[in-house]
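Record type: monomer structure entry
Structure origin: computed from sequence
Chain ID: A
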Amino acid sequence: MILTIFLNIAIFQGVVLGTIILKSPIFRNNANKYLAYAIFSLSASLLNQVFDDMEVYHNFPFLQFVDSMDPGLLFPALIYIYIVYQANHPIKNSKKKFFLFGPYLLSLILNIIDELLINLQETALLFQFAMNLMQMVSVFIVLVYVFGVFIFSYRIIKHAKIGQEKRWLIQLWYLSSVLFVSWILIILSAIPFDYDFTSVMKGVIILATFLIHWTAYTGIFKFRLANDRKEIKTLLNKLKPNHTTNHSITEITTHKASNEQKVETFTKENTYFQKLEDLCIHKHIYKDSTLDRDKVAVMLGISNGYVSQLVNTVTGGNFSTYINRYRVQAVKDIILNAEFDNYSLLAIGLECGFSSKSTFHTAFKKITGMTPNAYRKKHQ
């Protein structure tokens, strides 16, 4: 009962994730659609397991053909094609890659013949021999097919040029391989010992499915962010003469220095403060997500304590707020440019120097009084 509940959760999760990948403009591309199809095939195979548990095929014999069409074997082929597209391998332009669906079609035919033989004559020795032969051929096809696909998939991954992309593909490949290898080993070990392996298999499948769903989502999400940031950076470089943020801290800050008595040199005319302004306005040092007082102190040739006192006195805020105001202003400039409408706000925030989604949203709302999404909608 518990395993069936988890199976239903995995099926629902897979359908939702696959739909998001196919429909969302954030993830939609040629590579990801095959990943979505792979997740759908895995979900459909799990649904087949649920139907078995509920004895649907026993109560409704005319649905036996659905059991024979279990699309689980499509998963390795779809993962392979996804890897081909993601790694940008030349084979993606060849129709030969679709021959990988051949073993599934052959297995489907053998399963249908097997069902027909059962219905025609269950006791005849000739038919029994034919059925056993069909099962042996099916097992052989599955073994060669699954191991072959994953071996070639790994070789394709080596073609990936980006290190992060290669690590992600290897992780997905590893989890998918473990799922199918475990499935095959459980079946093969059960045959000579004649024990019921259903619970063990379901446990392995559910665990692997959840891991694949999680890996698929986090992987494509990170890829989307990385690609967005790369494209944003390229576009900003092209627009640089017209896009450079020329706002100084005295223009974008909403805090004024207090009227309390200050050291005379701690003003906006201070040489070091002017250098800091120059570094932010023209060098865009705020885009470094690891930027802190120590790094700025080294750039200016002063102590980090002097940096804090200078920024606090001139702007009325701390160093973090000072840098974040430049980051927020850079985000606002990008949002107001229609050429960046198709890029995610998180990718824009990360490219402008924020280290995470939470720090980006918190700083943006603190400085502008609204969320990045609300700001974009207001100015669209």
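Annotation 1: Confidence is low (pLDDT under 50) at residues 252-264.
Annotation 2: Residues 198-243 form the longest helix (46 residues).
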